[in-house]
Amino acid sequence: MHAVREMNFALSEGETTAVVGESGSGKSRAFLAIMGLLAKNGRTGGRAMMGDVNLIGLAPKQLDIYRGKDIAMIFRDPMTSLNPTLRVKTQLAEVLVKHRGFEKGKAVKSAVEMLERVGIPEPAKRANAYPHELSGGMRQRVMIAMALLCQPKILIADEPTTALDVTVQAQMLDLFKTLTDDFGTSLVLITHDLGVVAGIADRMMVMYGGRAVEKGVTDDLFYDPRHPYTLGLLHSTPHIAKRAERLDPIRGLPPSLEHLPKGCSFNPRCAFAFDRCLNERPPLTDTGNGREKACFYEGPMTYGKVA
Amino acid sequence: MLANLRAHYNLDQPLINQYFIYLWRLLHGDLGPSMVIDGFNVSQLIRIGFPFTLTVALTAFVIATSIGIVAGMIVAVNQNKWPDYVLVLVVMLGVVVPNFLMAAILQLWFGVYLGWLPAGGWVNGSVLHLVLPVTVLARPHAARISRLMRGSMIEVLGTNYVRTAKSKGLGQRLVLARHAIKPALLPVVSYLGPGLSYLLTGSLAVEQIFGLPGIGKYFVTAALNRDYGIVLGTTILYMFIIPALNLLVDLLYARLDPKVRYR
Amino acid sequence: MMDQNPINLLEIKNLKKTFAISSGLFSWPLTLTALENINFTIRRGETLGIVGESGCGKSTLGRCILQLLSPDEGQVLWLGQDLTKLPAEEMRKRRQDLQIIFQDPLASLNPRMTVGEIIADPLRTLRPELKKDERRARVLKTMEAVGLLPEMINRYPHEFSGGQAQRIGIARALITEPKLIVCDEPVSALDVSIRAQILNLLSELKDEFGLTLIFISHNLSVVRHVSDRIPVLYLGRIVELATGDEIYEDPKHPYTRALLTAVPIPDPKLARQRNIDALKGEIPSPINPPSGCTFRTRCRFAKPFCAEQRPPLETIDGGRLVACHRWREIEVPEEAVLGV
Question: ipTM exceeding 0.90?
Fold first, then answer.
């Protein structure tokens, strides 16, 4: 089964890129693959270049030089992503011991400083705590602190705020903005929430059925979507400042990755599909202004027709 | 003479009095006289036999637990490769073949045919005489522990926090040693209490088969000779020891799992 | 029969619910006050959206209304009849009128029952007099209403995606022809495009069957989309209750305002202009809540006296309710409401 196919993207330093898609779109798998974190039966091809290093296909030992140091990852569920049997400081300090060669005392000291930096009150006390003694928001802060210890070039955040309350989510997004600015880290934010994307991302990539279907600057995609799926997502998202009588959802269900439709994967749900879409798969093509899309339809897309 | 015997065992008293006399003595650590072995009371017999039984059971326990944990771990890391299948076979044999049969097989093979080890009996201080009984006793325990360890290790290796540890680039050794083993041990530890009591009781039969001087020897003979005093005394002893062991294991569990630690 | 057509379908009076939490082997159990002093009414045909952060008691409230949990104090008046005092047998009959939809659609469906059996299940207990083919006819009709195909009747839940499973959950709630459905985070586990489908379905069903809905959610955008009136809960108390438009366009309570500004807006330009007044800290423990106004520890406007007295839930401008000592003084310019 192919979870992700032909995905291409580039990150610039200090930029935030949002990867948007629904469950099964392959958005998380793609990045787990880059981090070498897929289950043993997962296989990955292609290249993921960080500087001159191709991360894909590296032996685990080789990959461990970069993982946690130059490229770090934060996961969706802060409740289960920290080891319940180890103190917070142990889990943080080990990163510095491994990648920076710090001796333990110094590593713990730096870890406490980083906890303070991500907005954890009484960091020295919290460092001694076990994860279950912290709230969800605190645990996600700990995860963020852990990921940023070595000031990585790339930080991948997989739905980092999905499990959190809105007020804590707002704090967290604020924190991401400050920290990526401070460290010059490129942030990859994997999310299904367009509200989160609008608030934080410079560029975005929309994924469907394991492929990128549209890429570009965030504002362009929001105000002038060119792929019917992007348009559909935008109209499915309730807007707090507007009360529409009805939402205009995309009809039908997302495809299962084992049985992707022939031609364009989106064609059974697309209001603009024509015969070509049923037989031929649209490649991701450059449409100028740094935008790309994978769709044959070139005409105007009216709001009403999506519904 | 009959009257004398009756008086000796307090059988001339009403039943309710016998009961309270027994309880009163029990409170003072006296388990009453043996009804068959003349001149010994049960407490004395236990004092002679139990240390030996405990030594056998604990030796088997330590060896079996270590082997079980290590085997379970190796196999979990190599899931669905050849070590895994080998373990499944060994575990099957360990659990399915009963102790008395395994004892007989080993006695025949190593004791009689090969002549490497003594088939039974006891010479003071001889470790060689313990090898076969301990092996027989340890085998099912090791099998159960390894199977438990395999299961919990596989589960732990699939958790999000192990994924986090990998994403930090810690390397396989650190990920296993620091992040996986401790949580994986938890279900194993909670089995150790029942496991040890299993060994302590199992030891009684094994001692009898190998002719070792633990309380097993007295207990099994007592059961056959209707020596109620010894059977009752041994049962009461176990009644105290087993909960104590379980408590000990629970305290160990609390050491490992911060969630159940007292604040 | 009971009262024919009163406006108030349900009336909640002074509801209180506590849980005992054991904290250790050697200490007394602690009391967690999940809900206290809850008063509101639900009118026939309206959608009441209950919002608040996790741990505010919103799910507990839904369960207390349905008597899935029994409240410690207070009344739940259903058409004037107190459900908390109802004998179990009576309550069982009443359940025809009050149904619930859960958050996790797949987990709340019995994996060993077919879709048809799941949907028919409430009928079996609540309407045992129905014959088998009558039941089947009802199941098919309900399946059609929620957008499930008739041929799915013999399939098992695991063959369905989250959205489809939620349709099954809705059908199961709908089949007894209830008057009120408590929707407990019904779309939180669903994908964006599917979420919109389910929200639209709920509003269609509401019109078609004349339902009254209680919609519990932490997602304020979703609640705005569906609700007529909204109580905002904080640490087990109502801090503000008003119509949807009032809550979203002119919130009075500092907590409501902070919640609203925290909601992400799917519009990059607005999002950039927004001046997010992010709430500091996290919800205090409900085991040991702050004295006086429970929100004061996170409130920008808190004054020392807020710690002394608990603000009463007072009625202001034409029937809306707010519990804040300082709501009058903290008028804010209109554009600051959503931070836009």
Answer: no
